[in-house]
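note to self — DONT lose this again. spent like an hour looking for the file last time. sequence + predicted structure for the chain T wanted, 647 res
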Amino acid sequence: MRLRSRATPGRRRMLCLWLLLLTLALLMLALSDLLQRDRSIQKPAPPRAPLRRFSAPSQLEVFLDSRDPALELGVDFAPLKSLQEDQLLLVPSAQGTKSAPQRRRSYKVLLPAAAKGTAAARTQTRGEPGTASGAHMHGLHSDMERAALHKYGFNEVVSERISLHRTLPDTRHPECLGEDYSESLPSASVVICFHDEAWSTLLRTVHSVLSTAPKHLQEVLLVDDQSRHGHLKSALSEYVSQMAGVRLIRSTRRLGVGGCRTLGAAKAIGEVLVFMDSHCECQKGWLEPLLERVAQDRTRVVSPIMDVIHWQTFQYNATQWPVRGVFDWRLDFFWESTPQLQHEDPQMAVLPVRSPALGGGVVAIDRHFFQSVGAYDPGMLLWGAEQIEMSIRVWSCGGSMEVVPCSRVAHLSHHHLPYTFPDQDLLERNKIRVADTWMDAYRKIYYRRDTLAHFIKQSESPNITERLRLKKSLGCRNFHWFLSAVYPQLYVPQDRPSLSGELYSVGTGRCADYPSGPGLQGGPMNIAPCSGTGSQHCDLNSEGEVRWGSAGALCLDVEEDRVVLSRCPTHRPTSSRLQWNFIKLSGQLVHQQSQLCVEAVKEGGLLQSGSGSKNSNPSAGGLFLRQCTHLPRQQWHFEQLVAPKGA
């Protein structure tokens, strides 16, 4: 018993010693962990460029639409999942380094394995010219250009070689250069929506705005309309995070042009919203003239002169002034150039011009007026005709529109539109919505010139209840007022029964035709298979004019013995050279001045009733004036695709 009692204190001392050592070890580990955390917390943040004139910090926002049923039900939402692919994008950051960031930058994009079952990798070089090696481009140049053209609708290979900071030539009128603008102009938020835009064109747009805008620029707001391309994920987020005054918002569902811009407007902080396409380049001093016009009248919506960047060469082309935005009876928008007006009034070189419509490329509007007048119609699908809808609504509901000549922005033209839609009739549905909401009884003219829209309307009608309620609450004027007060130059067709429609040739089984396209001012008529779409519509009115096309601005005319199109007169009475008679019994279309009949000739055909004129070229086909006979090739009738009361 004594031995046990003597050994017990020794064992206790050893046990206490081990416990003490273990406690010290645990304390050291805990202290080390605390020190490491403290270092990480106190680590200085990477330097950012000063904000200078911008008040809004660079940041990324992800907009979740709580109304989306997929989010409410907790379903695996594919667009949201695609936004989480950022963890697969390795982006070298230039922040925290002493040297200035390199302009040439490479982003390694690891594509998700779900694409082809295995993970693939590729290196994309983005930024300044000269980033792609000549050896790599050799032999692949034409293939890459074709691929880029198919993907974007323009030559992205050429765009990649052009600096993100290139300066456009100043083509403003000399009087614009001496204009002084108020220091108290309203602030502006430039909203740039994009969907799968090319890297070079998107960032060139942003840099162009930043380098040419004055101190009144509040922010540049990038709104990603659910882009899928890898370079618009983490690479873009990291790039934008280093740009002062630029914010990036991502939508988790496809909104389309109108919805995307409305989202941007809701998040913007500037007094004036400037909606800009994601492939533009600005000239110096473009913003001040727009802000001044809006500041003078907050219900005024304005646009710069839209110059053109060629889709293949990226060459800058200045638009000839004066120009204004208009649309035809198929609700297609186009810019109408009228340079002769400036010769009549030299002061027009620097004076804004009232415009019946404005394109969507660049539009400036007061933020509060934008909201009060109804923003963009949420019922419009993806894109198409939204600028027509807004133009009619602004004019009819108390606002006005104009083009400001001292402001110039260049817009990249597209060889074709790269976008595809799940519904090929999407554009038609947007136009139907515009016609039914705003055109009143005049919508029947639209349906006669767009038969696809007519047949869609027979099976379904748009839900425009809310827009009609808005129209009533705002006290908007009717479309007759719009045609009389805003756009009196738009010819209103008479569309008389049996004297309008496709001009069908009994002898050839074809229809009178003229190739449509921008900038065409007239030329020889020909014959082609009847389209049945309304694009070959013509109208013989009570003045004896045969008005051609969806705008009715071209008239059947005569050059020697050939039937051609020329600009219709704007003043009455109509020249006898442009007057025609239609004899319903024989089906002959007779030229009043010469009393000759219109005869149709197919390409390569011969004129059986020809006069032997040296000036005619029947082998080319077309419409010719000949002595009236009973030949089938001189027999015509107007094929009316949509009945007069069908709209």
